[in-house]
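Hi R.,

Here's the chain you asked about this morning:
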Amino acid sequence: MTSLAATPDMERDSSLGAGEALPMVDRQIAAVFLDVDGTLLDLASSPDTVFVPDGLVGVLSRATRRLSGALALVSGRTIDDMDLLFAPLRLRASGVHGAQIRIHPTQPIQIAPAASELPLSFRTALNVALSRFQGILIENKGFSVAIHYRLNPEIAANLRGALRDLIAAEPWRGLEIEDAHFAFELKPPSFDKGKAIAHFLACAPFRGRTPIFIGDDTTDESGFAAVAARGGRAYSVGRLRTGALGFFETPQTVRDWLAAFADAGEDE
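And here is the predicted structure, written out as tokens:
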């Protein structure tokens, strides 16, 4: 592992393989939190074209059993989206960057006290303001909105400027712009993945366990900070990010690690 102020050579040394990452999880005391897109699943051209590899649902189920239930998905997706992706498996989960939370798979989805849906007036103004941009996808999640520009990455700077101007001009103030992979996420700062992880850790079966969180972009850094503050460990994907102790090269490496951990309990 490396310091947070890693040089390029040091950053390469902080890359984790599935085998060397396996010992970092003690099933008796760990709580595992996983981002979805870019972490468990490879990124795709749009959120609805991601692919769930064969066997991953079974791996998630076995890993959850090994951890006595202390595994949760912490994603920018809605919980309903995650349920569809990993059906028939239902997991403990947080959706829309902490706006939604489900502590137990059989319980209804709860809404964070600080979360409220973006007003229709803002969403309408957003559509008007961005109508001049080609190749974007506006993903309305109720509590946040993501603007994907993967099909036209050259517009990133102008798109960010338009979003900044819109936020400044609208009565609905206080939104922040978070960078994701070829996307900008607009959300209030009142909820985030770090707050969601803190909520999980206050509840069984996570309470008293050491948190481990794996994520891949800026929206995950609040989660990295939350687990570090509680004596846990954070890992990023693709490159070393602020708050991460090391990183997995690709989502495939994360899946290999998770499968190795899940199957290590078969003889126990």
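One quick note: The chain has nine helices and 13 strands.

Cheers,
M.
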